[in-house]
Write a structure and sequence with these properties.
132 residues; alpha+beta; 2 domains; two-stranded antiparallel ribbon; two-stranded antiparallel sheet; 4 strands; 47% helix; elongated
């Protein structure tokens, strides 16, 4: 769809649905493992209009209106970041390259933990030898 077609479609969605009649919220199960959306048709269509607006915006991000989201919702998405790449990048941490500083940091932490463990063992043995 062209930008003009999207703008007309967004206006149509907003004209057909009032914020007053819409319900939309994000919720999580008690164990915080899965999240889900509770919404009615009006809420879904208005939220779709927000995302379509994000698709045609030239900015790097779009602030989502808090008027759409249910006040009892457990969490909110305040911002949509627009990226230029069309391919999925996978896990963020898989794409990070480790520098020599990262390796030095890991080695330093292990050395520090080893030193603390050795000091604890020496202190424990010394305390036991004082008692007996």
């Amino acid at each position: 769809m062209e930008k003009e077609e999207l703008e007309l479609f967004i206006k149509k969605l907003r004209a057909q649905n009032s914020i007053k009649d819409s319900r939309f919220g994000y919720y999580q199960d008690p164990e915080n493992i899965t999240g889900h959306i509770k919404a009615n048709k009006h809420g879904l269509e208005l939220y779709a209009a927000e995302f379509l607006e994000a698709a045609i915006t030239v900015e790097n991000h779009l602030v989502i209106s808090d008027k759409l989201t249910d006040k009892n919702s457990e969490f909110f998405f305040d911002l949509v970041d627009i990226i230029k790449s069309s391919k999925l990048e996978g896990d963020y941490f898989e794409n990070q390259k480790r520098s020599w500083k990262d390796y030095i940091l890991v080695i330093g932490i292990y050395l520090m933990l080893t030193t603390i463990a050795i000091c604890f063992i020496i202190g424990f043995v010394t305390a036991i030898s004082w008692l007996f």
